[in-house]
Amino acid sequence: MTFDLTPRAPQRLPFWPDILLDLRDALPDGPEPIYIVGGAVRDALLQRPIHDLDLAVPRDAMKLARWIADHFNGDVYVLDAERDVGRALVETPQGRMVFDVARLRGEALLDDLLDRDFTINAMAVSLKDDLDQVIDPLGGEADIMAKLLRRCAPGALANDPLRALRAVRQSVQFGLRIEPQTLADVRNSAAELKRISSERLRDELFKTLALPRPVAALRVLDALGLLPTLIPETVALHDLPQSPPHIYDAWTHTLAVVEHLAGIAATIQYTRTDNTAASFAYGMTAIQLDRYRSQLVSHLEQQWPDERAHKALLMLAALLHDAGKPAAAADGRFIGHETIGAKLAGTRAHALRLSSDETHRLKTIVANHMRLITLEAAPSRRAVSRFWRQLGAAGIDVCLLTLADHLGTYGSEFQQDDWLMLIERVLSLLEVYFERHAEMVEPPTLIDGGELIRMFNLKPGRLIGQLLELIRDAQVDGEVQTADDAVRLVREHLDKRGAGE
């Protein structure tokens, strides 16, 4: 087969960030070509924001990465010394730009493009020449216009089964239909995913869960048999029937919760539109929670190690929130900080090589996903304080998941009054966390554990924690305001305890 590597003008001119134009103008003269490759070319043609630029050179990739970092006062990292791959991180007025510089895969540019996953990612632009001219030997632009996702070569997915997951994600992300033979290869890759490292599976899963509508990708992954390898805990949910008050079976309910959680997140974001909040449920969410919009947006935009999106972790919690229900004792009710579902979440977090902080957050969300429902209609100051002291920032996640779980439970049959009361409960909790934190969540320390041990001749242990909790509860209720008040309260408690009361 003959491949045409002649640069040509595409149907729509690519849109490049200013920093790339600055880089082109600053490059020293030299005979070696430098190619922009991969997703950056695709995104430029789609006129999407570009935050990552892949560059390919015949040799000395690390040298170019260092030059870029030095020129823009950025940082440089060696990603793969053996394969000559480096990364330059550069801060720009529009945010951080990542330059990944690699040696060409093979002897020439064509070898590099043929070795890529899909045609939409197998286009190139010569950085030293006209940036409006695209090198497209595999017809990637035509596939973009046809909204088609096509493999670059027959062995593209067999060589790297992770590309099967990437195919699903990018088809949803860019609104593409997977070409039939590529789709067959995706389906056939299910068994081969087991040989992919946990870290690569995790990173692709998090990119998928961070999509604006992750449920669309989850449905495709499930239909193609890929989801069990990623999240085996979802398999049992398919066999669980409807259980009142749920109007759906367990798996349909889980997907509905994920969908509503993404919808609530979109409603909170600054990018929401009138259509985003068009329904009664989302509209009232936007109105009621708008008071804490900036705090909620900041919460959802947090990142975990290696830039894993917090939103993706929250979606994973939604996928696992009912995973413990097959066991008779795990009906989802709040039981301390542990449910069978939380243990399963911990197992999945370990398998995905999540950090200890991510694992703790995931387990806390899943274990407490019914906690808000178990609070009395008008919870006491002490109950609200304990909610936030025990959950911390995870309490925000629990609030959002609770809203999504309610919509996923009742569907179109939900009662507007019940929804308004639930939002009001969430709002009252958020008010305490965001506005009265020092008063009700973390009141000032009046006396510490060491002082209790010395003053009352106690031994270190659980009792000290119980006494400190007793003091905090009394502070929240306004019964204790000074250190002397705290000492008096502890003395009274110990006297009663000693008396057997």
Q: Can you tell me about this structure?
A:
The protein has 501 residues and is an alpha+beta fold. The protein has four domains: 1-146, 2-Layer Sandwich (Beta Polymerase, domain 2), CATH 3.30.460; 153-230, Hydrophobic Seed Protein; 244-440, no CATH class; 449-498, no CATH class. Helix content is 52%, strand content 9%. The chain has helices at 18-26, 39-46, 61-71, 109-114, 140-145, 156-159, 162-173, 180-188, 198-209, 214-223, 227-230, 250-268, 280-289, 293-300, 310-320, 340-351, 356-367, 371-374, 381-391, 394-410, 416-435, 437-441, 449-456, 462-476, 483-498; strands at residues 35-37, 52-57, 75-80, 85-92, 95-103, 124-126, 148-149, 177-178, 303-304, 308-309. The radius of gyration is 27 Å and the shape is elongated. It starts with 17 loop residues before the first helix and ends with a helix.
| Count of separate DSSP helical elements | 25
This entry's quaternary arrangement is single chain
Whole-number mean pLDDT: 92
Radius of gyration: 27 Å
Sequence of strands across the biggest β-sheet: 3-4-5-2-1-6
Largest sheet: 6 strands, mixed
Percent helix range:
40-55%
Low-confidence stretches: 326-338
State the shape.
elongated
Query: What is the domain total for the residues?
Result: 4
Estimate what percentage of residues fall within beta strands.
Answer: 5-15%
Number of strands: 10
Query: What is the rounded distance between the termini?
Result: 89 Å
